[in-house]
Amino acid sequence: MESDTETFLREKAIEMERRDISRTYIGLPSDGISILGYVTVSIKCLRVPDDNCLSNKALEKMNIDGATGIAQSYLIGQLSRSKDSPRGFGSVLMEVALRQLTVSKSAVGCRLVRLDCYEELIPYYGGHGFRPITRNDDGTLNQMMRLI
Ligand SMILES: CC(C)(COP(=O)(O)OP(=O)(O)OC[C@H]1O[C@@H](n2cnc3c(N)ncnc32)[C@H](O)[C@@H]1OP(=O)(O)O)[C@@H](O)C(=O)NCCC(=O)NCCS
Fold first, then answer.
1. Residue of the nearest CA to atom 16 in ligand 1?
2. For residue 52, which of 127, 135, 138 has the smallest C-alpha distance?
3. What's the CATH number where 136 sits?
4. What's the pLDDT at 2?
5. 41 and 75 in contact (C-beta within 8 Å)?
6. C-alpha 16: how far from its chain's center?
7. In a designed cystine with 24, which of 40, 44, 127, 148 is the match (CB 3.0 to 4.6 A)?
8. Could you tell me the residue range of the domain that residue 85 belongs to?
9. Is the pLDDT of residue 81 over 80?
């Protein structure tokens, strides 16, 4: 795996699990020895800027608070597959995450999922139904959203 994602798994995921900040789902092969990949889901509000790239139809469905411009949202915080995993395993993990979040939606509400990604991955997440919203404040990452 990329070193920063590996570091997240080793140093942060367990602590965040203990503190009930997030949940990390790990893909294991049948021998259970190596890790094929993982996805981390959590909750993080989304501030929708006025100069966003979203359609009015999408904005209407996001339940944005009129006074603050903030919408409640689930977060896909990490998604990574190992080099030894088959191509497309990232998409399997994405499906796992969306399935879990859909269960949460049924139990507690909230129909929005957000993520932050590098420019190169916008087409990839676009293929999973995510739409660009805006760039992050520091300009390095792009915010994307989809409805569930
Ligand atoms: C992103 C990721 C989870 C996708 O896994 P997947 O669903 O199994 O799909 P693949 O790895 O086969 O990649 C799908 C496409 O995205 C492209 N892609 C993947 N990571 C990319 C990256 N960092 N930059 C540019 N393109 C990337 C692949 O080249 C591939 O394109 P192709 O089908 O035209 O060859 C996986 O590539 C990964 O773990 N990457 C490293 C970690 C990472 O970047 N995570 C996302 C952080 S926002």
1. 124
2. 135
3. 3.40.630.30
4. 60
5. yes
6. 15
7. 40
8. 3-147
9. yes
* Residues 15-56: tens digit of each pLDDT: 999 999 999 999 999 887 888 999 999 999 999 998 898 999
Query: Ligand 1 within 6 A of 80 CB?
Result: yes
121 CA → ligand 1 middle, Å: 7
- Which residue's CA is the nearest one to ligand 1's atom 42? 80
Q: Which residue has the higher pLDDT, 43 or 11?
A: 43
Q: Are 146 and 117 in contact (CB under 8 A)?
A: no
Distance 57 CA to ligand 1 centre (A): 29
Helix (H, G, I), strand (E, B) or coil at 29: coil
Measured CA to CA, the distance from residue 13 to residue 9 in angstroms comes to: 5
- DSSP letter assigned to residue 119: G
Cβ of residue 78 lying under 6 Å from some atom of ligand 1: no
104 close to 110: Cβ distance less than 8 angstroms: yes
**pLDDT at site 6:** 77
Query: 91 CB under 6 A from ligand 1?
Result: yes
User: According to the model, what pLDDT value does residue 76 have?
Assistant: 98
What is the CB neighbour count within 10 angstroms for residue 83? 7
Count of domains for the chain: 1
Give the pLDDT confidence score for residue 1 in this predicted structure: 55
Q: What is the pLDDT of residue 137?
A: 77
